[in-house]
Write a structure and sequence with these properties.
The structure is a homodimer. Chain A has five helices and two strands; from the N terminus they run ααββααα. By secondary structure, chain A is mostly helical. The first copy, chain A, has a two-stranded antiparallel ribbon. Chain A is elongated. The model of chain A has no long low-confidence stretch (mean pLDDT about 90). Chains A and B meet through helix 3 and helix 5 of A and helix 3 and helix 5 of B. The structure holds a DNA duplex.
DNA sequence: GGCAACATTAGACTATACTTCATACTTCAT
DNA sequence: ATGAAGTATGAAGTATAGTCTAATGTTGCC
């Protein structure tokens, strides 16, 4: 179990940002019941996974609200198999859509580069 | 030449947003020198193009600052061919990078869907 | 000439995602 | 035991990207 400082170092995510994510409900640290003198939060390996997922999902344009939903599906034991698969398929589809859009714009930029190379002398 | 209302209708971008983009420096309307009684802004076809570019670039996660740079390259007559190509290549590379990341996450989600389908009964 | 529909500006307000600050407590090395 | 470093909490501040309001002026049509 890691303290927030270690967690930050292992994920390269600033402490303040981690706290912000925690407050947003993306995950929760656990208090140590044996140590009642402090109320430090302890984080498990799953939290590292979650932070990595957050990083990846953010990079591709998901909002924290969407990521929260994704995490809930990913780790929930309560959500039915059917619902899980549906939400995951939705996310997968939205990623495909984004890839399509990116390729479209890439093509346009490549064309424009050619244009510049040939005519704009 | 279009007034802002027409521009908004043709691009499906709200008037307020168009004004915001203009204030941000993504493009500029022109005053009509023959009509000195008002100071309405008139927009040309190029502005429609630019707004479409903004829409596409935003969709793939470019910030307005990046888009501004892209538009400046796209339409500037002052920037050298070499610089234009360099900036465009940078944007193209960042799109490739994003596509790579998206594919990565897509793969992870697909794997997880399989996992859920097989084991989480 | 009067009224609806459109235009402009400045400024206030919102949401998202942080980021910093202030205060106060805890742990650890010397 | 004391000071540096780490932790918690709440609240304020920042940046980006809008979105809305108010006050005021303009145009077009009956």
């Amino acid at each position: 179990m890691l303290l927030i400082n270690q967690l930050s170092k292992q994920t390269s995510i600033p402490i303040h940002t981690i706290r912000f994510y925690e407050k947003t409900g993306l995950f929760q640290g656990k208090k140590n019941p044996e140590k009642k003198s402090n109320n430090y939060n302890y984080y498990d390996e799953e939290t590292i996974e979650k932070l990595e997922l957050i990083g990846a999902a953010k990079m591709i344009g998901f909002t924290l609200a969407e990521i929260k939903e994704l995490i809930e599906v990913w780790y929930s034991k309560q959500i039915s198999k059917k619902d899980k698969i549906e939400i995951l398929n939705q996310k997968a589809a939205s990623i495909d859509e984004k890839i399509k859009q990116l390729k479209q714009v890439k093509k346009q930029i490549d064309l424009f580069i050619k244009e510049v190379e040939e005519f704009d002398c």
